[in-house]
Amino acid sequence: MSEPSQTNFVRTQMLPPSPPPLREAGVVRWLRENLFSGWFNTILTLFGLVVIWLLVSSALPWWLNGVWTAGSLGECREIIAKTAGEGASGACWAVVRERWHQFIFGFYPVDLWWRPVLAFCLLFAAMGPVLFAGQKRKLLILLGAVVAMILILVTLAASAVPNEVPGQTDAPFVWKLALALSLLTIGAMMALTAAGSGKLLWFTGLYPALCFWLLWGGPIWVPLGALFGFVLLAVVYSSLLKRAGPGMAAGLGLIVALVWWLFIDAPVTVALNDAIPFGLTSVQSDEFGGFLLAITIGVTAITFSLPVGILLALGRQSDMLIVKTLCVGFIEFIRGVPLITLLFTASLLLQYFLPPGTNFDIILRVIILVTLFAAAYLAEVIRGGLAALPRGQYEAADALGLDYWQAQRFIILPQALKVSIPAIVSTFIGLFKDTTLVAFVGLMDPLKGVTQIVRADIDWKGIYWEPYIFVGAIFFVICFGMSRYSMYLERKLKTDHR
Amino acid sequence: MKTTYLLGAIAAATMVAGAASAQATLEAVKARGELICGSNTGLTGFGAPDANGNWAGFDVDLCRAVAAAVLGDATKVKFVPTTGETRFTALQSGEVDVLIRNSTWTASRDSELALDFVAVNYYDGQGFMVKKDLGVSSAKELDGATVCIQTGTTTELNLADFFKQNNITYQPVTIADDAEGQRQYLAGACDAYTTDASGLAASRATLPDAENHIILPEIISKEPLGPVVRHGDNNWGDIVRWTYYSLLIAEEKGITKANVEEVAASTNDEEVKRLLGLSGEMAVKFGLDNDAFKRAILAGGNYGEIFAANIGEGTSINLARGLNALWTQGGLQYAPPFR
């Protein structure tokens, strides 16, 4: 081999890095990889684009031409024809602007709107200690948000009252007093939370009575009387617990409470109200409507169906023949019957079985049957969770010497419920959406009931999508919120390392 | 609807047992101080609450007239919205005192459901609406047409009968309610939309291009709509019936809401005197006080006034009196003599 006769070019420095080829970088690469990675995917992408284009081009003008201020559908059409040209389509949101209050409150008297609004805000304060148990910071933020909500919403509701509205109003100072008391209560809750005390559940316990009183009004002695029944139950239970065991104590407590509710409560309430008449203007059930009705039914049914569902699930697993048979029979019966049938029963057939002249509130009847319906479904969901637990967990509880209720409370249910969270929340979301079915028994649900009366007005007859979109959006917000919370809860309770 | 009949049959069976207590509707209403009137969940012109929750409409005004006659106050009415499925059972079970909710009087509702239709306050009939450019001028030319029709109503059966009798065919497009029907019809899902003629008129009035749609001349069924009460309480049925007739007689005799006092002071007509409680004890025989029917007229005016204010010519719905004109003007509205 000879020496190379001439010196080849030797690079002394590195080439500057050149940018990657266009087709391998940035948006183009992403498009190539994700949308045009083969002939089949390319066709699908193009097809998708055409579909999106068709949808947007047909719907977008309708959204863009939306009219917010008009007195009737005809007026809407005129405005759209004027601004967007003859034959253009456009949404008539004016109907929402004119009638939003019926979608939210039904026929609830305007001057009393502050009451459902306050009850709604306090609902979050009541749920806080349950939803964010042991999460001091989150709870404080939530309570702070509730304070802000109360201040803003209640003031808005109060300012919605036209001054010339005649008729029975609560004394004007009442709502200020209620506002101050609510803020004080939440302030106290915040202080307790900040001080690290976990004893906020008392407010959650009081809330149902408070909510009932705010929504329906009437003498304050009615909810207090109902609460006193629970106090009796608790007293009997705790005093008998040591001697008679939890089942017996709870049973006896229930009997005492029932005796109070059925026989003693009413006369005492009447007497107290005669002695010290104090209350809010009462509101009839037929004035409820829209989301006020849906949320009232939904929240009440959700709250009460969970404990009932747990008891039914445990009952179904029980070794005691009668308990088991009753629970299985109840669950299978309720699950075998459509909700509509139960609603018809609530609204029509129950009346036959009651003594003539009794006036058993229709909303209450519907709430009871919706609760039972949801409880039967929850019971099966929770039974799934119970079945998912390995046998060893039950045996471990026995080995520790825990009795049945202790074992359930400390070992079985926490795990079973955790497993069931997604399904439980699904049931709740379904239940909340099912509240719209009450339209079939003549209650003013937001989706069909209120929409129908709005359409019955000759001004708005012929309107179709706008009310549905409005109501659907609100339903979505609420259901999406529930769904996100359930995901948060799953992450928080996640203890495995998968 | 099937459910209606089933529930109704259960209701009827129970009612036999409860017939004794049913005598007392008048007493119950008086004791309650409030009339509970079964109304529609919302039907344009006939009964619906407005933006402030005040009920208004042709049927609603009759409820108010009954309340005025019985209780002396036209505002003492609680309106209970009932759906097509729940209306009769609501009446049977005593949830409502009277049902004034555009319900068609049929034989089976009278017999099987144990109801009493006490009068006919609106003679309706089923009609068709088509687009003008379809080039059809009679329902008999609708051979092969697609027709939007509400399921579970008498209109569905009438439609089948009509097409069969005329030996022509049609494609039904079933819809759930009026709003959907109007929507489907406008979207072109069906050539013709059929429902009660009064409903068609209301729908047509709100179409963006009403002049391009026509209501065909054929009325293919009889739909006598009227107030309903329970079987077994004849006195209460009489009260509702004669409250309604008092409004008809008032129109016949020219008594209006505005001039009723004037007429009462000046009239020489013996029937008017009896109606207004100036002579005889007519209303007392119903268990009411003698001013009862005068108050009923004062509540919303006579039949003609109620018609004109809610659905008549000049309103957006713009219905002609047609069959609902007084018998003296070629219609069917005829009240027996008040004596």
Measured distance between first and last alpha carbons of chain A = 65 Å
The CATH homologous superfamily of the largest domain in chain A? MetI-like
Shape of chain B: globular
Strand content of chain A: under 5%
What would a concise description of this structure say?
The complex is a heterodimer of chains A (about 500) and B (about 350). Chain A has about 500 residues and is an all-alpha fold.
Your description of this structure?
The complex is a heterodimer of chains A (498) and B (339). Chain A folds into 4 domains: 30-60, no CATH class; 113-217; 221-277; 290-498, MetI-like (MetI-like fold), CATH 1.10.3720.10. By secondary structure, chain A is mainly α. A two-stranded antiparallel ribbon of chain A has the order 1-2. Chain A starts with 25 loop residues before the first helix and ends in a 5-residue tail after the last helix. The mean pLDDT of chain A is 86. Chain A is globular. Chain A has helices at 26-34, 39-64, 73-84, 94-105, 114-131, 136-159, 172-194, 201-216, 221-275, 290-317, 321-336, 339-353, 362-388, 391-399, 404-434, 446-456, 465-493, and strands at residues 218-219, 279-280. Chain B has 339 residues and is an alpha/beta fold. Chain B contains 13 helices and 13 strands. In chain B, the strands form 3 sheets. In chain B, strands 1, 4, 5, 6, 7 and 13 form a 6-stranded mixed β-sheet that branches. In chain B, helix 3 packs antiparallel against helix 12 (292-300). The model of chain B is unreliable at 1-22 (pLDDT under 50). The A-B interface holds A 73-74, 77, 98-99, 102, 106-107, 284, 286-287, 344, 347-349, 351-352, 356-357, 439-444, 449, 451-458, 461-462, 464 and B 3, 7, 10-11, 14, 18, 21, 28, 40-45, 47-51, 53, 78-83, 85-86, 89-90, 93-95, 177-179, 182-183, 202-203, 205-208, 315-317.
